């Protein structure tokens, strides 16, 4: 059975509506990154690769595991944050994202096929059987939605550094276990 472990990044130093568009981790997030690396290292079958979104909070969360495994960190934008429509400013993103969370993938307003984007996240994860992939709240929701056939954007509320496990079944992504849920700052 080929598994992929998808981990939401640790607690960032700034929220998604803040002025820093690419914050790193705060002290709690750094501790969470160490804790999730230790938990993954304790698994009977450790991942053999470590993949991250290009954003700093994901890279910083992934680095302790990559170091411990002695592997190079692979950066893949396909597991990155949901693209904001080009016409929106940074300040308009929070309201747009909140509206997106209240609906379905095919209802998201923007200049992108968001159903296709969600399917692209799932396809990227299928490419990483045997890996630990560090990603984002929305990308995790996309993967769970594709795996379960759920059209709603909000499939669950993954906590910082929670680990969601998928099985790769040929060309399918199969949900094995959702990660720990918590009230998130996303909404």
Structural summary, described in words:
It is a single chain. The chain has helices spanning 27-41, 56-69, 93-101, 114-126, 137-148, and strands at residues 2-8, 49-52, 73-75, 131-135, 163-169, 172-177. Helix 1 (27-41) packs parallel to helix 2 and helix 4 packs across helix 5 (137-148). Strand 2, helix 2 (56-69) and strand 3 form a beta-alpha-beta unit. It is α/β, with parallel strands linked by helices and 187 residues long. It has five helices and six strands. The model has no long low-confidence stretch (mean pLDDT 93). It is globular, with a radius of gyration of 15 Å. The chain has a six-stranded mixed β-sheet, with helices on both faces.
């Amino acid at each position: 059975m080929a598994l992929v472990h998808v981990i939401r990044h640790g607690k960032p130093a700034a929220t998604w509506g803040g002025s820093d568009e690419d914050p790193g981790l705060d002290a709690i997030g750094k501790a969470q990154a160490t804790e999730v690396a230790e938990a993954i290292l304790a698994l009977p079958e450790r991942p053999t690769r470590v993949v991250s979104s290009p954003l700093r909070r994901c890279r910083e969360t992934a680095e302790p595991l990559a170091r411990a495994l002695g592997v190079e960190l692979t950066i893949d934008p396909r597991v990155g944050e949901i693209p904001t429509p080009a016409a929106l400013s940074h300040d308009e993103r929070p309201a747009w994202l909140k509206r997106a969370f209240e609906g379905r993938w095919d209802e998201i307003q923007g200049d992108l096929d968001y159903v296709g984007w969600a399917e692209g996240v799932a396809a990227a994860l299928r490419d990483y059987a045997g890996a630990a992939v560090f990603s984002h709240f929305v990308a995790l929701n996309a993967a769970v939605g594709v795996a379960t056939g759920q059209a709603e954007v909000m499939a669950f509320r993954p906590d910082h550094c929670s680990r969601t496990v998928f099985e790769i079944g040929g060309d399918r992504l199969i949900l094995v276990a959702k990660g720990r849920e918590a009230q998130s700052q996303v909404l």
